[in-house]
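In this supplementary section we document a worked example of the pipeline. Step one takes a protein sequence of length 95 as its only input; no multiple sequence alignment statistics are reported here. Step two produces a three-dimensional model, which step three serialises into structure tokens for compact storage. The input and output of this example are shown verbatim.
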Amino acid sequence: MTSAPEAPKWLWLHEEDNVAMALSDFAADNTVTVNGTSIVFADAVPYGHKFAVKRIGADEPVIKFAETIGAAKRAIDIGEHVHVHNIRSLRGGAR
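The serialised model returned by step three reads:
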């Protein structure tokens, strides 16, 4: 009997996306492979939070599921936790 392949512990849906969502808790230095790219986590990323799969420059859009969800407050490197500490919402006039 062969076992089923392990399901990814992250969700990345669109090639435009510069973030993916953690479907598991990740510690700093954990590694995942997204679209053929090996990503080493720069810091801990909790379940349900986002991490950068592409470098995001300061003030550039943060894209999840092919939709802009905010803008980077500062440059965000691949593998960094992406959350309210380094992105700002563009909805409802929030800055």
